Amino acid sequence: MTKVSPFAPAHFPDLPVVGGVRLAVAAAGIRYRDRNDLLLAEFDRGTSVAGVFTRSQTAAAPVQWCRDAIGQGQARALVVNAGNANAFTGTDGPVVVETTVSATTHLFNCRPSQVLVASTGVIGEPLPVDRLTAALPDLHLRLGEADWQAAARTIATTDTFAKGAGCRVEIEGTPVAIAGIAKGSGMIAPDMATMLAFIFTDASITAPALQTILAAATARSFNCITVDGDTSTNDTVLMFATGSAGPRSFDDPADPKLAAFRAGVDAVCLDLAQQVVRDGEGVSKFVSITITGAQDADSARHIGLTVANSPLVKTAIAGSDANWGRIVAAVGRAGEWIDRDRLAIRIGGVLITEDGGPLPDYDETPVAEHMRGREIAIEIDVGVSDGSATVWTGDLTHGYIDINADYRS
Amino acid sequence: MTKVSPFAPAHFPDLPVVGGVRLAVAAAGIRYRDRNDLLLAEFDRGTSVAGVFTRSQTAAAPVQWCRDAIGQGQARALVVNAGNANAFTGTDGPVVVETTVSATTHLFNCRPSQVLVASTGVIGEPLPVDRLTAALPDLHLRLGEADWQAAARTIATTDTFAKGAGCRVEIEGTPVAIAGIAKGSGMIAPDMATMLAFIFTDASITAPALQTILAAATARSFNCITVDGDTSTNDTVLMFATGSAGPRSFDDPADPKLAAFRAGVDAVCLDLAQQVVRDGEGVSKFVSITITGAQDADSARHIGLTVANSPLVKTAIAGSDANWGRIVAAVGRAGEWIDRDRLAIRIGGVLITEDGGPLPDYDETPVAEHMRGREIAIEIDVGVSDGSATVWTGDLTHGYIDINADYRS
């Protein structure tokens, strides 16, 4: 039995009601026994949809379906199952998706492209789609006001706590709600731990504008986290805008009137992404790594992720060891433009290096104290320009080995 | 106290005498107490030198020195210390190198560029060069026939066994010796990791030809291994050809008369590289990953290393879990050209996948049996062309965490 992450929140957050969204969950027995594993969401007619997906070349069948479907920009239903990823399932994969979509279109009297699907779980095993479709009619009858916590629990696999985030913002004086749920804990690990995130709002935004806003938020949140560097076959972020709150439809993602809305989406994505890291498999410390002085933001992010994925840096953090030499080595192998002799590394706010070496009077005492804490802050200025990025990760512990050395068995 | 790797050989190999090479070792007390930490090698006049180095942008001062020095192509002495990497030591770094080189040139009455230096150990601490130079005169007096095992032990850091390999070949009927030593067990990844290797021969080869032969051998050996994906600041492979065996000097690296010599260098490099993996920190299984059907050899190597560096694949292997789904995911995220629906994955020679899914009658029994062994063979055909490569790695175990969570303290 996996222990609950030490970073689990005391309770699930209080998320707003999102007009135009109805949910239901069920125990379809796809893999698990005695727990819910199937989520159905219904959206009002006219709901816009946007999505960001894994770049894996072994992407799962549901990911391929959603990539095509969001091109139409409209959503009426979302079907998510946990326990089986429907990934690397050969010709059976698309058949399972089409069977699911077909059963759903009958219930909602909608077009196939208006049905989005997502799966997470074991790779390479056929998904028993008959159990899924058998559960749909009853789910459809039970659709109602969103129980976000139940929904978040339903899509979880190795997660040790349910992940939700939300906020209320205003657009032209009209209150608008944003609520999101996510799952993932082996970052984005290719077995039972894919990252799925679903964000819902009652704002009225066209699909192309929603896509731009979601992609920007994802770049600064879900794409800036790593637990173990393993991108999954099923990673999916979908956002739905029902429009039920009005005040009117927006089609310019850069519209100044949407500033608070964009900030709200950013905040919800970042909160969910950080929760995924805080539930990282075996994590005992939460680490933020901020890179400044890089060629541009992409370069900064790549340097940050190289440091964040270094097993030597991650194990040093697990051991509360202020081993900044491993940070230097990781920065050096990132392959980005840096100036070794202008590297400025700070841990817990304490400057450690300058002029290509440690400060002459470097005192490790406050840094060692910081390293013994649970929240670790690393800042690295690489000294060449003004690109910056922050990434988040956890440490690499015995717990990670415990979870992953015999997860499947 | 770290346990000796289960893959340690029963005894150090019997390496040939290499004419024109004299060695001595000493306990200079640079960091360690009660063990040798300083190696001095003397080469006959006219010895050619070649080198391959880390591509890290935070490369250490001795690496920068050697990169320049081998441009002259001649070597008279090699000085290697363990315990301190002289990396990220600011302006002090080059001063330490120059002081070491200067003291050595006085002993050998040679030019600075004829002195090669290498360091391994902690990053970012000043190297007490006075202890190093104080030990040199006595070392110089004690130079004699190579004790390869003592030399290999002297340059070790976290290694659990001394690494050596050698062979005898003929060039135009003349016997020629090749002997090599290496160190490394963590921070190991292509582009030379925290790995030092020194290869010695009494063949007569010009420096440019030696460079070509060494670079080719390195591409197939040291650059095809990974323990933790962490390239280091100090990785160095140097090769010295004293010419004392004759029969005459060769300047064409592709000369057919050097075929056996090239094969010998390849074999020695591969043997040493595999020993580094077999001594990987915490390794309990030795894994070979062969990629075929890729766009080209570089693409194949990149796919292989992505699989080899996946923490999820490595932990599955540690747990003897035939979790080929994680292999599919790692292949997918490598970003190389592959055909998901033609992936053919074999473990222990047993075909597992075809047509984008597992074989309909896949029987895990023999694969599970193979996974319980100590030597794991994974073969992956990615189905697009005929590029191939083999890479080697170990598993990711609790032992790795133990070693690295408090290495420095």
TrEMBL record, chains A, B:
Subcellular location: Cytoplasm
Biological or metabolic pathway of the protein: Amino-acid biosynthesis; L-arginine biosynthesis; L-ornithine and N-acetyl-L-glutamate from L-glutamate and N(2)-acetyl-L-ornithine (cyclic): step 1/1; Amino-acid biosynthesis; L-arginine biosynthesis; N(2)-acetyl-L-ornithine from L-glutamate: step 1/4
Alphabetical keyword list: Acyltransferase, Amino-acid biosynthesis, Arginine biosynthesis, Autocatalytic cleavage, Cytoplasm, Multifunctional enzyme, Transferase
Enzyme's top EC category: transferase
E.C. no: 2.3.1.35, 2.3.1.1
Annotated active site: 194 (nucleophile)
MF (Gene Ontology): L-glutamate N-acetyltransferase activity; L-glutamate N-acetyltransferase activity, acting on acetyl-L-ornithine as donor
Site entry: Cleavage: 193-194
Membrane spanning residue stretches: none
Residues noted as binding substrate in the record, renumbered to the chain: 157, 183, 194, 281, 404, 409
Site (Involved in the stabilization of negative charge on the oxyanion by the formation of the oxyanion hole): 120-121
Keyword Transferase: yes
Gene3D superfamilies (UniProt xref): ArgJ beta chain, C-terminal domain, L-amino peptidase D-ALA esterase/amidase
Catalytic reaction annotation: N(2)-acetyl-L-ornithine + L-glutamate = N-acetyl-L-glutamate + L-ornithine; L-glutamate + acetyl-CoA = N-acetyl-L-glutamate + CoA + H(+)
Annotated Gene Ontology cellular component terms: cytoplasm
UniProt keyword Amino-acid biosynthesis, yes or no: yes
HAMAP family documented for this protein: ArgJ
Function in brief: Catalyzes two activities which are involved in the cyclic version of arginine biosynthesis: the synthesis of N-acetylglutamate from glutamate and acetyl-CoA as the acetyl donor, and of ornithine by transacetylation between N(2)-acetylornithine and glutamate.
Assembly description: Heterotetramer of two alpha and two beta chains.
Name the record gives this protein: Arginine biosynthesis bifunctional protein ArgJ
Native species: Defluviicoccus vanus
